[in-house]
Amino acid sequence: MAEIESLLGGLLGHLNEVPDPRQSGKIEYPLDEILFLTISAVVSTCSEWDEIVDFGEDKLDWLRRYRPYLNGIPSHDTLNRVMSMIDPVAFEQMFVTWVNRNIQLPEGTLISIDGKKLRSSATKLEQQTAHADGGKSAVHLVEAWCSDLSLCLSIRQVAEKTNEIKAIPLILNDLELDGCVVSIDAMGCQREIVKAIISQNADYVIGLKGNQATLSAGVKAAFEAYAPECQDEQYAKDTSVDHGRIEERICRVLNAERLPQWVPRADWAGLNTIIEVQSERTIMASGTLTRDTRYYISSLLLSADHIAAYVRGHWGIENQLHYMLDVFWGEDDSRKRTACAAANFGTVLRIAHNLIKTHPENISIKRKRKKADRSDQYREQILRLQT
Q1: In this structure, are residues 292 and 247 in contact, taking their beta carbons and an 8 Å threshold?
Q2: Is 343 within 8 Å of 141 (Cβ atoms)?
């Protein structure tokens, strides 16, 4: 428990770092009180503004152990209005500072970066309408995840999925990456991103698709030119059975020197290996068989077994963060659409998810949230509060 305290402690103090966007003479409910109320309520099974108000009214005496709440609990309209006004960049920066304050990542730790669309943060009609005609996009967040610690380490809002390229360098700057391995999907396969990772004394494993046509064609040509029995090729195979399907994966790794001469290898900082992963999935109930081949570039000089583990590890951000945010926290169904409310509530959910996931009791997220709802003491443990 002491280690967890040092990892995510001090949240209350960090809430004071978020600038209040309201005029100072008109503030009835201080911002840190609103944020503390919201995070405490979300940890305790609440998701809608009126539920958060109900929680606050029921737990007002408990809340006053940590903040005055001189004017009681704000209305759901006030919560929505204030949360929609907060500068999401400032809130994200507070999140990054809080999470990374005492983290020391061991050498070889995998940091996965990927984006997530908040599908209900804009109506379907708004998303299908051109911006010039009054439409708007759903909120899109890019984040960094560490499976080893079960922590979301950084978060950035972007306008569209295509803008992930702009957010990734900002996330890289947020983190101490010395000795770590960064995994990104094909959207992040950019020369400047690769250069930024290498400049921080880190390694990378990055997906490769048609957005880098020359490099992609060169990698495919290199693997087509060398048979599996080639002596300078690394080879690994594994099989998994999960969710009613059998999946076999074959990972082939070649030294980047095997790329054709017409590929500008020097443009890609630290490029040492190219990777091919062939997967074959069989649905056990129907016998349906599908095959897929994916390609990657990497700065790693490791065995195929180790590189394959990093490739598979990237999916931790989908399974342990994005999936859980939708299933256990209801993020995809959330209809908070006023100004910056969706993005800011996304940060609240990631604060809550970090706190819940790193609590040492080995029970489900659902059970932890219900216990936090019933027990003030358990909620204090989740929030790392000192009474």
Answers
A1: no
A2: yes
Catalogue the long-range contacts made by 25-32 (C-beta closer than 8 Å, 24 or more residues apart). 28/71, 28/74, 29/71, 29/74, 29/78, 29/82, 30/67, 31/82, 31/86, 32/67
Place of tokens 């590890």: 313
Output the CA–CA distances (angstroms, integers) from residue 121 to 15, 196, 318, 325, 339, in the order listed.
24, 32, 20, 14, 10
- Answer yes or no: are the C-beta atoms of 222 and 259 closer than 8 Å: yes
Give the number of other Cβ atoms within 10 Å of residue 94's Cβ. Answer: 21
Span 231-249, pLDDT tens digits: 556 888 888 887 788 889 9
CATH fold label, 207-313: S-adenosyl-L-methionine-dependent methyltransferases (2.20.130)
d(CA 355, CA 36): 13
Model confidence over 170-180: pLDDT tens digits? 999 999 999 99
Residue 220's contacts (CB-CB under 8 Å, 6 or more residues apart) are 295
Tell me the two tokens of residue 273: 């290996």
Question: Which two tokens mark 350?
Answer: 């990631």
Alpha carbon of 147 to those of 235, 255, 357: distances in Å?
25, 28, 11
Domain edges within the chain: 207-313
Are 350 and 142 a contacting pair, CB within 8 Å? no
Q: Answer whether residue 210 shows pLDDT above 60.
A: yes
Cα distance between residue 330 and residue 46, in whole Å: 10
Q: How far apart are CA 219 and CA 210, in angstroms?
A: 11
CA 220/CA 251 separation, integer angstroms:
14
Gap between the Cα atoms of 88 and 288, Å rounded = 45
Contact criterion met (CB below 8 Å) for 311 and 251: yes
State pTM to two decimals: 0.93
Quick one: pLDDT band at residue 5, thresholds 50, 70, 90?
very low
